[in-house]
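Board notes, transcribed. Complex of a protein with S-adenosylmethionine.
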Amino acid sequence: MSEDKREDTEQDKWDRSRVKSANREFYDAISGHYEQVDGRRSDTLKRWLRLTLEDLRAKAPGGVLLDIGAGGGVVTSCAEGLFNLRIGLDISQKILAAHSASFDHGVTADVDYLPVSDASVDVITCFATLHHLYSFDSLSSEIARALKPGGIFYSDHDMDATFYDRFKILLAIYRKINNAKAAYKSVCGVIDDELYDLSEWGQDGIDSGALIGNLDSLGFSVEPVFHWYGLGRVTDILFGQKARSKRWAPLVSIRAVKRR
Ligand SMILES: C[S@@+](CC[C@H](N)C(=O)[O-])C[C@H]1O[C@@H](n2cnc3c(N)ncnc32)[C@H](O)[C@@H]1O
């Protein structure tokens, strides 16, 4: 199941660096308005996230949480009182600064190079962030290095490419109506089509199998779940929290436990 490892071409290196720069620029620019424009912060989503974090804390070896791609800190704020230390890590210094009350410690860094010691973290979370990354190779190795044995990686709320490929026409119509790109552009003049598309590198779905394969080969027990929960009131009512096959649900949730 592991992803075919090949050397980066010059084009890969160039694209990887452009995607990172675009994310830094995009989230620096939107830092003061992110929570307002994103609009996914329903109380239902926060309650569900809190329950998920309670479960992770109960199963983790200790109380250090590292949230990568922390953004406005929705994960770390939902984790308040559950962990001894909540670290928010993001490539955008400005978005961390604008939401510093949401975590105990903010770190400006790239997920490909986590500035933490080996085996020092109990839970790593990554919410709605995988689709902003160029690839998952370095991220997977860094997760394996940073987590303690028994530590847990949890990622959620990115769309799998299988679902996108199957429903791309319907999704294109949905995106025309619910136009996130236009919403970001209207709030922030720096954001144009190119910056948005580069920052949303995986907007047409992520290859979750590649990440799962990487983690599996690095000694994790990995459980993927495909679901609809937390997108909005209508889909919450229609689909609930039920796990489905990846052909029938957009969101991929991954829990990976580092084997002892
Ligand atoms: C869609 S936001 C999600 C933020 C938050 N997790 C949430 O759910 O609201 C994606 C975040 O990932 C960050 N990001 C993108 N690429 C990154 C990278 N290579 N390293 C660290 N953070 C990155 C962005 O700056 C942004 O804050």
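The chain is about 45% helix and 20% strand. The chain has a mean pLDDT of 95.
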